[in-house]
């Protein structure tokens, strides 16, 4: 009853921002992401009859805090699904997601955990069901089941049975790249879970955000299909700015941006004016991700590294979905 799975992280081009059900992790809006080759988690799950509780090791260290609770709660859910409530697991996870790069390791983390646990329990489920289960660990993780461009359909059912990811285009459809711009100072004050909750509850901009999503999605899917980089980039950048605008009007208001975040945003816009096609997106933290095409990689890397306050630039191609080792 042992299995190992590998899952890549993903970057949202149309953001998941806000839940309609906190405990089932059901989103208010559909979202769309690109799975990234460069950043991943590998996880081994072994169910052992002699264990009296779950244990979780991250990068070889035992985890006991709220991170442990989230993992153990998720194992409880998947055990329950398998009808094996009394079986505990030893979990070993290795993150190949540099924390400094500002990617939430929860996306690759919960996707790898779900896949390894399902296989260790001999669950014979399809990727759609796996994505539905993964969603309940961390929302954005449900998109990491698939490679390339992926949409998370919010679903309509109250029990969440139709809220899962679907593949839009595989990684080899289009060589679009992402540069993670690592800033020197990286404190994240408001966690995404807390930030989106506060925004849903208090921001007067929130309903406009939700209303604007269907059009953004239609446009970006059209852009992906036709490999129209300017279209995809412009929509992703605008969608990111809209998401962050909702936080400015929350009560109490907050922002994930630092001054270097803004310097990078401006630099990307200036690079565009000078003929380099690049667009930014930002998640619930200060770091910036820049979308670009392979021909611009060297110039872009160099320009971004020159911005004061930028610590590093890590580039990635599109990546594959879940695999088993
Ligand atoms: C800004 O998936 O980390 O990155 O479902 O509460 O675990 P929970 O939240 P999480 O939120 C990600 C938010 C985001 C946008 C996105 O990835 O779509």
TrEMBL record:
Question: EC number(s) in its UniProt entry?
Answer: 4.1.1.33
Keyword terms: ATP-binding, Lipid biosynthesis, Lipid metabolism, Lyase, Nucleotide-binding
Per the record's keyword annotation, is Lipid metabolism included, yes or no? yes
Gene3D superfamilies cross-referenced by the UniProt entry: 3.30.230.10, GHMP kinase, C-terminal domain
Q: Family assignment?
A: Belongs to the diphosphomevalonate decarboxylase family.
Record-linked PANTHER family: DIPHOSPHOMEVALONATE DECARBOXYLASE
Q: What is this protein called?
A: diphosphomevalonate decarboxylase
Question: Organism, per UniProt?
Answer: Virgibacillus siamensis
Name the gene for this chain.
mvaD
